[in-house]
Design goal:
PBP_dimer_sf; Beta-lactam/transpept-like; membrane; 25 helices; seven-stranded mixed β-sheet; PASTA domain-containing protein; PASTA_dom; Beta-lactamase
Length: about 700
């Protein structure tokens, strides 16, 4: 009996042992499989996590590409700078010394904890056997030091360096002196890294073309925004191994990945012509106490925008502060939401983002359509009795109804800006054809210019048009266009009939100046014939010389049309507010430039007619451009005799200081383009026109300084 019990007990023990061995075997297999997953399947992920715990990855900004004018002048550049960054977790640990006595910790934590701490202490030794120096500072002490060096508020600095973020920028674009002082302090968790700052050397020069960037160097407006992907480049990285309190390990894995700079952008803007436009816009703004003045200059042959200016504007170096002191004072009373809206209004590019009723400048399009459709010819005549008799239901009259123009040719009707004649021409064209051509001129589509926020023109479709709509549109009312649309359409009239796509950027280049990509001129469509274009240029010349007499400049064959339109506010025409404008081209026998000048709300007590306000500005600008292009003036005998009395020789100015050059110009009866404060010792490097050329008195001489 005892023997049987013993055998049963042995058998049970063997079974237990077998189960235990089986369990141990399966557990071992499971651990091996798990270890295999950790090391082989998930090994890379764990390795990545370990590297993230052992290292610090700091982004190195790529240098943003430079923006150049058409002649290679730098208009927007990135300069090397430094930024102070922080790893808050390391700042909080910064008051712990790697050399503190750990005996208590070892005793409390046991043998393994003590061994690990000793090992960490051993790793923290440098090759000479000495401890790597650490400045024991609390976060409060660190904040005080940084606030003093960076001239920042102490509480703001303390808040940043003790935040819960893993990485914080404390201050960007500090001086080299500040950077050096911070490096000398050897503050735990605080680093000074390479950075780039966007700078616009000419201040408020072409801001609506250039735009600006935010603090992260992303383009927000203008070319900075529309070509941001080319300008940005590829950021670099610095990866360093650190110990538990953020110090770089002497034998750690360190890597530096160099950033790739962004591409340079070459504009179609000509810096000299842009200066002419900026000066002209500012002068007419001040002379007529206007709300705004906008000027565009375009090469009609390829659609290149040579200048685009609107005053008042802003400085892209500090885009949230208005230049005008009066506006700046007004903004101090605004709420946060109102201030934000004021910024957006200031950043809007009126030449592209706004639409307006063009008034009589639109009559050029109406006339071109009539000639193309054979609804009129140079021999056509029109009788003006002061009223549009074809529309009996509306009291539409000519602007000079009190003294009608009487019988007139087509060219004389444009010179007289006769609404009565244009109404008849519009009705002769018919609403279907009128709408078809206005669409062909691009007034119901975006022009294609690479600037953000382009507005669309407003046209009525034929199905919604009555005869009265045809009549009012014929002389520029009841239709709205953007300035860039209008100048593009008139450029088509000037160049033989080709509607060009406006071009603001012509090339992308690398750091060595090699062309990476060319943006070619593009013809959208043929709108009118060469013959119609030639007839229109003749009509425009007569209009400028006999109609808008203030736009006449002897020898330079300027053609164009003025416009004076009542301003529309909330759908109503306002009697006391006008938009005065002029659009013209020169020389009419071979157009090189088209200029559009728009003056918004000139002071009516000074003058508001487009011929008086905008005409002279456009003519002066075209004359200066023709001189810059070395276009030879062609005078009639009568003009020649008058002009010879007014001619002076341009003096040699190269190598002179600006003070010496100005003295010479004044004595010669000439003016210069310099209207901003410059160093009196600045040297003249280039001049237009060149020395020895004959120009009329009071001509503007363009000076390029060093």
């Amino acid at each position: 009996m005892k023997k049987r019990i013993k055998s049963t007990t042995n058998l049970q023990n063997k079974r237990r042992m077998l189960v235990f061995l089986l369990f141990f075997f399966l557990a071992t297999i499971g651990l091996i499989v798990k270890l295999g997953f950790i090391q082989i399947i998930d090994g890379e992920e764990y390795k990545k996590q370990a590297m993230e715990n052992w290292s610090r990855d700091i982004t190195i900004s790529a240098k943003r590409g430079t923006i150049y004018d058409a002649k290679g002048k730098k208009l927007s550049v990135s300069v090397n700078s430094s930024t102070v960054v922080c790893i808050p977790a390391d700042v909080k640990k910064g008051n712990l010394s790697a050399n503190e006595d750990t005996s208590d910790a070892e005793e409390d934590g046991g043998f393994l904890t003590g061994l690990l701490k000793k090992l960490n202490k051993s790793i923290s030794k440098n090759t000479a056997g000495e401890s790597i120096p650490i400045n024991k500072r609390t976060p409060e002490e660190t904040a005080k030091i940084l606030a003093e060096i960076l001239e920042m508020d102490y509480d703001e600095v303390l808040s940043r360096i003790t935040s819960d973020y893993s990485y914080v920028a404390i201050k960007r674009w500090i001086t080299e002196e500040q950077a050096q002082k911070i490096r000398e302090q050897e503050l735990s968790g605080i680093s000074v890294i390479e950075d780039n700052k966007r700078v616009y050397p000419y201040g408020d020069f072409a801001p609506y073309v250039l735009g600006f960037t935010n603090i992260d160097q992303d383009g927000l407006y203008g070319v900075e925004a529309t070509y941001n992907e080319y300008l940005t480049g590829i950021p670099g990285r610095t990866v360093i191994n650190t110990d538990a309190i953020g110090r770089e390990l002497p034998f750690g894995y360190n890597s530096y990945y160099e950033p790739t700079n962004g591409l340079g952008v070459v504009l179609t803007i000509d810096e000299v012509i842009q200066h002419y436009a900026e000066s002209a816009a500012l002068k007419v703004l001040n002379d007529y106490n206007a709300l705004r003045a906008t000027i565009i200059v375009m090469d009609p042959n390829n659609g290149d925008v040579l200048a685009m200016s609107s005053k008042p504007d802003y400085d892209p170096n500090d885009p949230r502060v208005p230049i005008d002191e009066e506006i700046k004072a007004q903004w101090e009373t605004l709420s946060e939401d109102e201030l934000r809206n004021a910024w957006f209004d200031m950043w809007r590019n009126p030449a592209v983002n706004d639409i307006y009723e063009p008034g009589s400048t639109f009559k050029l399009l109406t006339t071109a359509i009539a000639l193309e459709e054979n609804a009129a010819s140079l021999d056509s005549t029109y009788f003006c009795d002061g009223f549009v008799r074809q529309i009996t239901s509306n009291n539409i009259k000519c602007w000079r109804y009190y003294r009608p123009h009487g019988q007139q040719t087509l060219s004389e009707a444009i010179q007289n800006s006769c609404n009565d004649a244009l109404a008849e021409i519009g009705l002769d064209i018919g609403k279907e054809a009128f709408y078809k051509y206005l669409k062909a001129f691009g007034l119901e589509e975006q022009s294609g210019i690479m600037l953000n926020g382009e507005a669309l023109g407003l046209l009525k479709e034929p199905i919604n048009m009555k005869d009265v709509d045809v009549v009012t549109q014929a002389f520029g009312q009841g239709v709205a266009v953007s300035p860039i649309q209008l100048i593009t359409a008139v450029s088509a009239i000037s160049n033989g009939g080709n509607l060009m796509e406006p071009r603001i950027v012509k090339q992308l280049i690398d750091d060595d100046g090699n062309v990476v990509e060319n943006f070619e001129s593009e013809i959208r469509r043929k709108v009118i014939s060469d013959e119609t274009s030639k007839m229109m240029l003749s009509i425009m010349k007569d209009s400028a010389e006999a109609g808008t007499k203030q736009a006449y400049r002897p020898g330079y064959r300027i053609g164009g049309k003025s416009g004076t339109a009542q301003k529309v506010i909330d759908g109503k025409y306002i009697d006391s507010k006008f938009i005065s404008s002029f659009i013209g081209t020169a020389p009419v026998d071979n157009p090189r430039a088209v200029v559009l000048v728009i003056v918004d709300e000139p002071d009516v007590s000074i003058g508001y007619y487009g011929s008086i306000v905008a005409g002279p500005v456009a003519a002066d600008l075209l004359e200066n451009i023709m001189k810059y292009y070395d276009v030879e003036p062609v005078y009639t005998e009568e003009e020649l005799g008058h002009v010879e009395k007014q001619m002076v020789q341009v003096p040699e100015l190269l190598g002179l200081t600006i003070a010496e050059a100005m003295d010479k110009l004044i004595r010669a009866g000439l003016e210069s383009n310099i209207e901003i404060e410059v160093d009196e010792n600045s040297i003249v490097k280039q001049q237009f026109p060149k020395a020895g050329e004959m120009v009329t008195k009071n001509s503007m001489i363009t000076l390029i300084l060093n």
